Amino acid sequence: MKTRNMVLSALFAALLAICAWISLPFGALRFTLQTFGLFLALLTLGGKWGSVSVFLYIAMGILGLPVFSGFHGGFATLTGPTGGFLVGFMLTPLLYWAMTALWSDKRFVGILALGIGLVICYFCGWIWYCRFAPINFFLWCASYLLPDCGKLVLAIFLSRRLDRLRP
């Protein structure tokens, strides 16, 4: 069972990379499917193995593999203008894992945790990006909120179809 979970975590880390590559430029930021990959990994694999897949994805990027948006990689991406979003990507799985471990209603609490995690991603990204740009980035981020909520709904639907993969 452990080997199966490790393989699924690696597959979802690869899915996160593919989701990052699918992007539409929107000013300095890109509209990507990364949050969809994050949501799907956590909802399908659960807190522990979903977190492993997200941290594996981040580790691949830090090591220089071009897995981040725009085919970027390396530690410099974490310290660049959009590095705060990646920090939020690391906090969201931990929040999801903790909340689903503490409460018995995993579905509802998991969706709530992902919603809070999305806000954390935005907040970390906003705080980090404000160091680089003197624009009202908070309002700019708000334009991403509706599409990200749509990605969450799609991930919920697909994760229910993929329930047999759950560790």
Strand content: under 5%
* Element order: H for helix, E for strand: HEEHHHHH
Question: Overall 3D geometry?
Answer: globular
- Helical residue percent? over 70%
Radius of gyration: 15 Å
- Mean pLDDT rating: 86
Strand order of the largest sheet: 1-2
User: Biggest sheet, open or closed, and with what strands and sense?
Assistant: 2 strands, antiparallel
pLDDT < 50 stretches? none
Strand tally is 2
Q: In whole angstroms, how far apart are the ends?
A: 8 Å
Per DSSP, the total helix count is 6
Word description of this protein:
It is a single chain. With 167 residues, the chain is mainly alpha-helical. The protein contains 6 helices and 2 strands; from the N terminus they run H-E-E-H-H-H-H-H.
Quick overview:
By secondary structure, this protein is mainly alpha-helical. The protein has helices spanning 2-21, 34-62, 75-79, 83-102, 106-129, 137-161, and strands spanning 23-26, 29-32. The mean pLDDT is 86.
Sequence-ordered SSE layout with sheet pairings:
Layout: H1 2-21, E1 23-26, E2 29-32, H2 34-62, H3 75-79, H4 83-102, H5 106-129, H6 137-161
Helix pairs in contact: 1-2, 2-4, 2-5, 2-6, 4-5, 5-6
Features:
167 residues; mainly alpha; two-stranded antiparallel ribbon; 6 helices; globular
